[in-house]
C-alpha cells in the first residue's frame, strides 16, 4: 500500500483538470527519467533549471579535475536527489496553480486513492 495526496482546485469545474493525485515518497520515474517526467507533468521550467544547474555542476567538477570515481558518485547522488524530491516539486507546482490538499489516502494506486476520497461511506460523492 502506498500513500497519496489528493489535490483539488476549488474554483474549477472540470474533474479531469482540477483533481491531482500525487504519490508520497520517492519517485522512480523522477529518478530514472527526470527531464521527461518533469515535462510530462508540465514542469518545463523546472526541467530546464535542473538541467542547467546539473550541467554547471558537472562542468565545474570536471574543470577542477575530480577523479572519475568521485564524479560517478556525484552523478548518482544528484540523480538520487531528483527522485527523492520529484514529487515535492510537483506538489509545489500544484499549489502555485491554486490547488489545495483535500486529503491523504492509503491505497494500492492513485485511482483507488482518488475513489476512496471522492466516495464516502454511503457511496455518495463528497
Summarize the structure.
This protein has 126 residues and is of the alpha+beta class. The protein has one domain (2-118). The protein has helices at 15-18, 28-32, 34-40, 44-63, 68-96, 110-118; strands spanning 2-8, 19-23, 100-107.
Question: What keywords describe this structure?
Answer:
alpha+beta; elongated
Describe the structure.
The protein is of the alpha+beta class. It has one domain (2-118). The protein has helices at 15-18, 28-32, 34-40, 44-63, 68-96, 110-118; strands spanning 2-8, 19-23, 100-107. It has a three-stranded antiparallel sheet. The longest helix is centred in the middle third of the chain and has 29 residues, at 68-96. The protein is elongated and about 60 Å long.
Distance linking N and C termini: 23 Å
Q: Helix proportion of residues, in percent?
A: 55-70%
Total tally of structural domains? 1
Number of helices: 6
Instruction: Tell me the major beta sheet.
Output: 3 strands, antiparallel
**Which stretches of 5+ consecutive residues score pLDDT under 50?**
121-126
Shape: elongated
Mean pLDDT: 87
Taken as a percent bin, the fraction of beta residues is: 15-25%
Count of distinct strands: 3
The computed structural class is alpha+beta
Q: What is the H/E order? A: EHEHHHHEH
Strand order of the largest sheet: 2-1-3
Radius of gyration: 18 Å
Ordered list of secondary-structure elements with their pairings:
Blueprint: E1 2-8, H1 15-18, E2 19-23, H2 28-32, H3 34-40, H4 44-63, H5 68-96, E3 100-107, H6 110-118
Antiparallel strand pairs: 1-2, 1-3
Amino acid at each position: 500500500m502506498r500513500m497519496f495526496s489528493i489535490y483539488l482546485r476549488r474554483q474549477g469545474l472540470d474533474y479531469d483538470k482540477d483533481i491531482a493525485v500525487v504519490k508520497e515518497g520517492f519517485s522512480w520515474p523522477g529518478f530514472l527519467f527526470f527531464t521527461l517526467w518533469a515535462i510530462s507533468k508540465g514542469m518545463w521550467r523546472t526541467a530546464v533549471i535542473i538541467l542547467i544547474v546539473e550541467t554547471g555542476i558537472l562542468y565545474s567538477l570536471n574543470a577542477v579535475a575530480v577523479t572519475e570515481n568521485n564524479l560517478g558518485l556525484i552523478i548518482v547522488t544528484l540523480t538520487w536527489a531528483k527522485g527523492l524530491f520529484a514529487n515535492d516539486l510537483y506538489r509545489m507546482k500544484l499549489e502555485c496553480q491554486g490547488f489545495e490538499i483535500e486529503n491523504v489516502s492509503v491505497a494500492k494506486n492513485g485511482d483507488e486513492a482518488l475513489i476512496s476520497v471522492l466516495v464516502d461511506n454511503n457511496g455518495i460523492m463528497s
